[in-house]
Design goal:
By secondary structure, the chain is α/β, with parallel strands linked by helices. It has 2 domains: 30 residues, no CATH class; 173 residues, Carbonic anhydrase (Beta-carbonic Anhydrase, Chain A), CATH 3.40.1050. The chain has 9 helices and 6 strands. β4 and β5 form a beta hairpin. The longest helix is centred in the C-terminal third of the chain and has 20 residues. Bound molecules: zinc ion.
Amino acid sequence: MQDIIDGFLKFQREVFPARSALFKRLATSQKPGVLFVTCSDSRVVPELLTQREPGDMFVIRNAGNIVPSYGPEPGGVSATVEYAVAVLGVSDIVICGHSDCGAMGAISTCKCLDHLPAVAAWLRHADAAKVINAAGTYASPEAKLNALVRENVVAQLANIRTHPSVALALAQGRLNLHGWIYDIEQGAIDALDGSAAPQHFVSLAEHPHVCATRTRPA
Ligand code: ZN
């Protein structure tokens, strides 16, 4: 823990003074353009991957980058999605899964989660991906996991569309959805191409304008 405290003290001493104008501007308002939903995994650092500054991205993180479908008893994720879309007016939502995801690994290998009841209940929000994944055949456990990570991003994109704020913004053409898979070892991102049928993932480096909802203008 001491390294965390030392890190803050270094930030306060060296980083903050050099960027005080940015923090002064952000002190009383924010206008992030993007809601970024990703896993809590320590190896996924959204601002580092996208080279964003404070104030640029509204972020939701949880085990498995999951967005529960909207329901009569909305929770913290639903509230955060609603605030991002209805109040902050984000123009884009990214749901970003990643390689070697522990949450998806537990599903992929049908690991017994009886001793982790909260995790087991949470991962039920990925059941659509789970059954699709279980019905396939794969060359290796890694291939099965990689497929599940992708299927889960597709499933969570479907879930987020059930949120009224998201449905309205999509209907009014003021919101785009993006499905990304970050490869930790390669430093690469594959993105869901919503303009193709069936939907498939393509290299973001090769297709920088690809979008899960439609192809964005360049
Ligand atoms: Zn993960």
